Every structure is written in C-alpha cells, then in structure tokens.
Amino acid sequence: MNYHDGTLARTNEISTGPSSLTRDEVYQICLRHLKTGELEQAEARCREGLASDGNHAGLLHLMAGVSLLNGNYDAALEWAGRALTNEMKATYLATFGTALLGKGLQAEALEAFQRAVALDPVDPSIWENFGNALSRTGHVNQASLCVLIARAYQKLPFLAECRSVPRSDWNALTAQFNPHLRSRPGATEARDPIHCFWSNAPLSEMSRLSLQSMVRQGHPVKLYTYDNVAAMQARVPPGVMVVDAGNLVPGAIYQHAVLNSEIRYFSDIFRYAVLHEFGGWWLDTDIVLVKPLEFGREHVFSAQWSGVENGHVCVGDVMRAPKGSVHMANLYALSLQRMFSEKRVEYGAVGPLLLSEYLLVAGDEALQSSILPPTTFNAIDWREVDLFAAEGRAGFDLLSDPRVTGVHLWGKMWAERGLRFDAVPEQSVAGYLKKLVLEPNWLTQLAAKYDSDKGAVYKGHLAHHYTRVYHELFRSKALEPIRILEIGLCRGRVEGWTQDQVPSLQMWLDYFPNAEVIGVDIEDFSWFSHPRVRIHRVDQGDRTMLAELASKENALDIIIDDGSHASVHQHLTLGVLFPSLKPGGLFVIEDLDWQPPEIPSNGAPLVKDVLNAMKASGTFISNVMTEAEAKLISDEVDEILLNDSFRELMSRGKLGGLGVLKRKAR
User: Fold this and answer.
1) Burial of 526: CB neighbours in 10 Å, binned 0-12, 13-18, 19+
2) What is the rounded average pLDDT of the residues 301-329?
C-alpha cells in the first residue's frame, strides 16, 4: 500500500527489518488497513506490534475489531476485555458490547453500551451502535432516540464541542454552522406575518412584551385562540390581530390534547397547521424580537443548547415555512398520528422530539441547511433562565453576538424556578428588554435621566430630540457588541458651568449594554472611568490628531460628531474618520445649523448644504478634505438622512439639523 501520510509512509520497515516505528505509528497503520477492509494485513500488523508491546490498548482493541468483522465473537470479547483491562475507554466498551450482543447476551450488551455512553456521551458512533443494539433487542423507541442523538452530534457538532469549552465561548462554536443563515435587512420589502397562539389563560405580561416586540419590528402579527376573540383583542397590544383558532384546527383536537397532555403539546401541533395553511413565521409568545425576521430561506428552524439526551435538539419556538409547505403538512399529520394512534402524549413528543427526528434523521441536506444555531434565538438556554432576572453581565454577555435576533425567555421555566417576571430588577436582561420594547422611546428617557440635550427637553426647554431618530436607527443593534465613537463630551466649555457627568456616554452605556463606547473631546475627560469606555483627547481642527485617533480606533459601527459644530471641523472629521466606519455603519453629524462664531469657517461650506447637494448629484464636494477622502464618501455612502433639530426648527425655523450617512454594506 502507498501511504501518503508521513507517519504511515514507513510501513515496509515493519517487515523488512527491525522496526523503528513507535507502537502508536503501528496502530495508525493497522487502523488504516482495518478501515479499508484489509483484515489480514490489519491482523498481521497488530500481532507484530503486540509482540513488542502486549499491553497496547489500541492494538488490542483493533484485534477485537478484526475479530468482530470475522464473526469471531469469543475472540472479540477476549481482545476487547484485554484492551479494557489496560485502559477504560468508551469505544472499547462499545466493541465489547457489540461482541456480547453477537453472543446473544443482550442484557450484558446493553449494560456495556450504557457504560460507554456514560463515559463518552458525545461520540456519535457509540450512540449509533447502542441504537442498533436496542433495535435488535426490541426497544424500538429507545433505539430511535439513540440514532437521533447520534445524528445530533454528527450534524450539529457544536452540541458536542460545547462540553469542553467555557460557557462564554459557546456562541463562537456556531460561527461556521450554516453561515448562509444570516439576517439580511430588506427595508423596502414587506415583512412576513408572524403567527402565535394563546388560549385558556389570561394573557401574561411576558406574552404582551413578546407580541409588542413583534409589532415593533414591523411584522403583521396574528394571535390564534380558542377563547373569546373580542375579549382577547381588547387585551393584546395594538397591531396584533386576534383570530379564532377553531377555524383552522377543530376545537375537539384542542380539547383532546389539553385533556391528555398540556397546552404546550397542542401548541406544537397547531404551529404545523397554521404554517402549512398560511405560510410565514411561527413564534412562541415568550420570544422577544430585537431585530426583524429577514432570513433568505423558505424554511427556517432553530436549535437549542440543552436537551440532546431527550432528543430535544431542534425546537419549534421559531419556524418559517412557505404556504403549502409539504414539510409542515407531514409534521401536522405525524403529530396527529402520534397523539391519536400511538398515544404518545408526553411533552415534546409532537414538538422538539418529532421535529428533531424529522430534520436530523429523516431530513435531507436542504432541511438541515435551514437550521439556525442556538445563538440566533436561544443564546440563553432554558437551564439558565435565572440569568434573565439577575443583575450583572452574565446574561448580557451571552446575548452579545450580532446574530442574536430574538431572545427566548422560556416562560414555563420561570414558575418552576420561582421567578416573577413583574419583579425583575431594572438592570437585569428582562428589565432591559421591557424598557427597550415597551417604552415608546427609552433612549429619550435616558437622555432626560442624564441631562443630555439630545433628548426632548433640556433644562426645562425644548431640546434637539435627536433620540427619536437614534432609537429607530440604533435599536436593531441594541444588544450587539458594537463600537460607538462620539466626539464632543463637554458642556462646561460653552455653558460656563462645572461638568461632573458625561451625559451621552452614560446614555450609550445603558442603551447598548454590550457596546464599547469611545469618547473624544478637546478637553481632558480621563477622569471618567468605566470598563467599556475609552477616552481620547483630540482637537477636531488638527488633522494629525484625528488621523492618530482613526488608526487607534478603526472598525467603528457608529460615529457621532457632536463636537465644535464648525463646518470646517465637520468636513475634516468626516473625511479623516469615515474610512474607520464599518460597512453598513452610520456616521452622524449633529447641529448642522449652529456655527460657533469664534471658529473661522475658512470658506468651508455648510455640511448640510453639501449633503443636500450630494443627495441630488451623488457627489460629495469639499474644499477641506483631500480628493481621495471626498471620493471615498461619494463612492461608499449608501444613503443620506436629514432630520430636524426640534430646537432649531422651533427657534429659527431651520430644517435638517441632523445628518446621517450610511456606509454601503458588503
């Protein structure tokens, strides 16, 4: 044989003279022979290796494998037993179990497999062989579960890998899993409808939050119920349409399911029916959306971190399907069969278990490529529900991945843990989500809290109210680990009073709990200290200082120029810092109508006029920037937004005091 592996290239040394190969190298050669079906060569090489080291567990185990393939179960037991004597290993136990099964010792074989999976619970081959053993002994349902577990670890490798890395690294394990499944914003497209279900109980505060979040993200929302439709309509948030569920699934099926199991069991059945009938999205009413649902696949499913041992790998908390989906029709039929014919009414039987079997065991590549990793909707696991109600960073850290589109609160677990949704601290994840979703504009409230003129009122007078714009621009990034840089922190320089706060930085820290916030000012703000804040002292009129800032703080998601407001400085800052903006990032320039009289314009045109001209012509023209800087802005700006400063509008009749440039996404 010609071995291309450098370790295996010296095979001939075994037979042509004294071997210089180590026992592990011999093992690799024997394993290669075994995998290619060359049993005689494998056995010969194993025996040569064992002649030098009779206790090499790997070679002993390979001899057991050769014996199994030859149908010699007695020899397989002997070899595997010797291997186990030297090293207790799960694969050796599985081979031992297979040999026992071949001898007809079923109880002993199953015990060996149970010990094997306990020793190594994430090896797909062991689960597969355990399933085969269970099937041969008549344990059909248990065999199916073992096969499903094997497929889960094969198809979703992060479920095995997460056992050997810190919890904080789990999201990173899913980075390359189905990378084509990413939210792709399409602002001009109508958003798919979302279907939900609630019945047989007063609408909870958590469910109101969930429904409100769906409406806030621009989706049509339908809530199906077997309760009184008019009474339910009066309780749901505006924008949610309540629909009689009995027009889709007969009430008798609902009553049967609830009588024999629980409401969650019926909900699992109902979602298949509604998606087949109408298409769109299904969301459980404990999912809080933080971004619109914009995934470019007809079918979308979701996985979770925990529950593999029960076959609960893929969950139906979030699903998408086209109208008339054959897969939803199949799942609906299978769920009814399982309920009525098989009498399987345990929780999950028609939900996570059935869905996981359908996608991972019976499913094809297309379906498996439609499974989202837990990061997208289940980043905080159902075993970790306490993190939603706890103060501290742990929960926020798990939600900091940019792929997080919704937050599954796992409502049922709250009661089991003795947690109250109406009593969560403001600084907890649940408290944060309440403010982000339920408050009309939480950012405006933060501006008032920290006394910033970006809000609606400042020192008793009408303020700029930029926060009304920022909330709409920024909220989809609220939980992301973005990098936001703001120029202009000083209030005392102009207003003549001592400053002991940095309002905008404090506002951004609260609004973006996972952001890195960079503050820049001509004055020294190094006294302000926070783990997520860095401070730079920079003069906006100094190109060199701006360039040094750009080199230190590259790859920014948001840049806000609230500095001197002099047009010459705004031109220079935009030109030097725009290259540091990430694709899809936002460059914001405040107070376009106020020019400080003490700073000469040097002939620089008002930035607002330049932005309006660019909207018309597509070209940015500046006598302050370099030609290359102006060209980059002309080429890379995807959209320009001009919004009013309410203060300037009401005091001087000026329109368009706030400019936003969006860099093209790639």
Assistant:
1) exposed
2) 97
Predicted confidence at residue 106, as pLDDT, reads 93
Predicted local confidence at residue 497, as pLDDT: 47
CA 417 to chain centre: 24
Q: What is the largest CA-CA distance in the chain?
A: 98
By DSSP bridging, strand 280-283 and strand 194-197 are parallel
**Which ranges of 555-645 would DSSP assign to H, the alpha helix?**
567-577, 607-617, 627-636
| 51 phi/psi in degrees, rounded to 5 | -60, -30
Share of residues in the chain with pLDDT > 70 (%): 95
Sheet strands side by side (includes 194-197): 240-244, 221-225, 194-197, 280-283, 314-321, 300-303, 371-372
Between the CA of residue 454 and those of 82, 402, 459, 468, what are the distances in Å? 76, 26, 12, 9
Helix crossing, 124-136 with 140-155: angle to 10°? Answer: 160
For position 278, what pLDDT does the model report?
98
Token pair for 487:
């120029």
Cα 348 from chain centroid? 23
pLDDT at 15 over 60: no
Contacts of 176 (CB under 8 A, 6+ apart): none
Instruction: Tell me the residue length of the chain.
Output: 666
* 391: Cβ contacts below 8 Å, ≥ 6 apart: 425, 427, 428
Phi, psi angle pair for 533, to nearest 5°:
-125, 140
Per-state percent for the chain, helix, strand, coil, to nearest 5: 50, 15, 40
437-461 b/e (C-beta count within 10 Å ≥ 16 → b): beeebbbbbbbbebebbbbbebeee
What is the separation of C-alpha 31 from the centre of its chain, rounded to a whole number of angstroms?
Answer: 39
Q: Other CB atoms closer than 10 Å to residue 202's CB: what's the count?
A: 10
∠ CA 194-200-204, rounded to 5°: 65
SS3 sequence of 374-435: HHHHCCCCHHHCHHHHCECCHHHHHCCCCCCCEEECCHHHHHHHCCCHHHCCCCEHHHHHHH
Mean pLDDT of 447-461: 91
CA distance 455 to 435: 16
Using left for φ > 0, alpha for ψ between -120 and 50, and beta otherwise, residue 419 falls in beta
* pLDDT band, residue 465 (cuts 50/70/90): very high
What mean pLDDT is predicted for residues 119-142?
94
